[in-house]
Design brief:
binds coenzyme A, 44% helix, single chain, eight-stranded parallel β-barrel, TIM Barrel, 14 helices, alpha/beta, binds zinc ion, 8 strands
Length: 342
């Protein structure tokens, strides 16, 4: 970053956007989205220029029935060169399945909050970490990259504040165990901009060489503000979900991720380079209500882009004619009055 760079001036800086809709989005849906539709969705996202796509999760099909077709999805998507297809993995069984299915990356998950880890993964954090450390060894032997996601990194809906030192200590342990990147997840939208900026700075101070991703949910309307606060603090990699779908079924009050097309729309206006094709994203997002059976949170799907103009009202020509006639009449009256005053 040069001296004059600040968050308000994108100056074509690259921001890496990682799509999590097919996993974080669809895991929350009560309907089972047909496998062929999931594959078409991922293929559309690949074409739209996302840097990384979380295609599915290798979790227990009892825990997350919506993603019980993980193997088929990963086998049948068209892999776009340069796009990393990552998969969420909670345990060794999940890792074996994901490696067998040729995932490019395993996204390991555990929570920075003990209560949420027990609710979501039915293990203590120490048990999760022990299992995931074995997974890292396995993945590295198989030549597969590993990212570690820490849920509830900005607060837990059941415990409240999660101390930043606790979050960073887990991040340091995962990095030492061999994770290439760490994602700090705001699972239920508790993060706020000043907190986010501080944690990003502290992360970079403690783990300067480790790739950092921020994963925000828009639960309390602070998603875009948190993205901008992170960029200001030096981050350049974000998870987002098409249509703003998403949420963890094991975290009370969870709702949608920050919305991919909203973030792309805002950042491109601010002259950032997201590498994404907004019209293609919007085409894919427009199909989501048909897949999920409900409206999606995306404001851009509802309102269109800033310069998607609307036609004036049907009787616009008549209004203009009347307005111009009134203006002409009042100019004439004014001229008469001025005349009579002389
Ligand atoms: N993939 C497929 N099946 C799995 C699995 C995996 N990764 N992990 C466990 N299982 C199966 C076991 O084989 C076992 O099946 P069986 O009853 O037919 O023998 C069953 O699930 C229970 O296994 P167990 O090891 O006792 O796990 P658990 O019941 O304690 O569940 C998790 C722990 C983590 C596997 C499970 O809760 C889970 O997958 N959660 C997903 C959480 C999630 O994705 N949350 C949202 C994203 S943050
Ligand atoms: Zn999430």
């Amino acid at each position: 970053m040069n001296n004059t760079a600040n968050v308000w001036t994108g100056a074509r800086r690259r921001i890496h956007l990682q799509e999590v809709g097919p996993r974080d989005g669809l895991q929350m849906e009560s309907v089972f989205v047909p496998t062929a539709d999931k594959i078409a969705l991922i293929d559309a996202l690949s074409a739209a220029g996302l840097a990384k796509i979380e295609a599915t999760a290798f979790v227990s099909p009892q825990a997350i029935p919506a993603l019980r077709d993980a193997e088929i999805v990963l086998r049948e998507i068209a892999r776009m060169p340069g796009v990393v297809y990552t998969c969420l993995v909670p345990n060794l069984r999940g890792a074996e399945r994901a490696i067998e299915a040729k995932a490019d990356e395993l996204n390991l998950v555990m929570s920075a909050s003990e209560t949420h880890n027990l609710a979501n993964l039915r293990m203590t954090r120490d048990q999760s970490f022990a299992a995931l450390s074995e997974v890292i060894v396995l993945a590295r032997q198989a030549g597969v990259e590993v990212n570690a996601s820490l849920s509830c990194a900005f607060g837990c809906p059941m415990e409240g504040e999660v101390p930043p030192t606790v979050v960073l200590d887990w991040a340091v342990r995962f990095a030492a165990a061999g994770a290439r990147g760490i994602t700090l997840c705001d699972t239920t939208g508790m993060a706020y901009p000043t907190q986010v900026a501080q944690l990003v700075r502290d992360f970079h101070a403690r783990l300067p060489g480790t790739e950092l991703t921020l994963h925000f949910h828009n639960t309390r309307g602070m998603g875009l503000s948190n993205v901008l606060a992170s960029i200001d603090a030096g981050a350049d990699r974000f998870d987002a979900s098409l249509g703003g779908l998403g949420g963890c079924p094991y975290a009370p009050g969870a709702s949608g991720n920050v919305c991919t097309e909203e973030i792309v729309h805002a950042l491109e206006l601010m002259d950032y380079d997201t590498g994404c094709d907004l019209p293609l994203l919007l085409q894919a997002a427009a199909r989501l209500p048909g897949l999920t059976g409900h409206d999606v949170p995306s404001q851009i799907v509802k309102a269109g882009r800033r310069l998607d103009l609307h036609a004036p009202p049907a009787d616009f020509a008549l209004w203009r004619e009347r307005a111009l006639a009134r203006a002409a009449a009042s100019t004439a009256t004014l001229a008469d009055r001025t005349q009579s005053l002389r």
